[in-house]
Amino acid sequence: MLAFEVLEHVEDDTGLLDEIARVSSSGGVLILSTPVHASMWSPLDDACGHVRRDEPEVLFEKVRAAGFEIGGYSWTAAGSSRITKLRAKALTSNRRLSTAFVQTLIFPFHAAYQRMFAKVGWTPPADPVPFEADDVMLWATRALEGSPV
Q1: Is 102 strand, coil or helix?
Q2: Considering 70, 115, 132, 140, which has the largest number of Cβ atoms within 10 A of its Cβ?
């Protein structure tokens, strides 16, 4: 199951994670990404309609509580504040054009990145997520039937 940049848009994110777990097979894999660190909230979060930025420990606990075992994570640092403000302005001034730009140019690059998924250097979930992390991508497996999470 893939959930790239979804959780931060959903009011009931724990309900969504529970539903993902419900429809996932035992041993199934969840890969998700989401912004982290409430202190990094920016105008872009407002423009995108984000409802939260969880602290990494909170995010990991939500995933575990839904019945997944986290295998690892990777993170990206925040971009330039000037670029972030520009992206927010573009999104709020012309959502249709901004969305078309993302769908025609950004998403194909994102798809290429997904093909490189196996080459990502995964950090063990016990290692703390750095403060400078703006976004976290994690993978987790659905607990096997009858086993503790």
Answers
A1: helix
A2: 140
Residue 2 bridge partners (DSSP): 31
Return the structure tokens found at 116. 């490189």
* DSSP code at position 8: G
Under the banding of pLDDT at 50, 70 and 90, the label for residue 148 is low
Q: Which CATH architecture has domain 2-78+120-142?
A: 3-Layer(aba) Sandwich (3.40)
| Residue type at position 20 | I
As a whole number of angstroms, the distance between CA 22 and CA 118 comes to 26
Q: What is the pLDDT of residue 81?
A: 78
Q: Please tell me the pTM assigned to this model.
A: 0.81
Q: With 80 as the cut, is the pLDDT of residue 90 above it?
A: no
Neighbours of 44 (CB within 10 A): 21
Say if CB 11 and CB 49 are below 8 A apart. no
How is residue 20 written in tokens?
Answer: 């993902």
Q: Domain boundaries in the chain?
A: 2-78+120-142
The pLDDT of 91-105, averaged and rounded, is: 76
Contact (CB, 8 A) for 78 and 84: yes
Query: What is the C-alpha separation between 134 and 10, in angstroms, rounded?
Result: 18
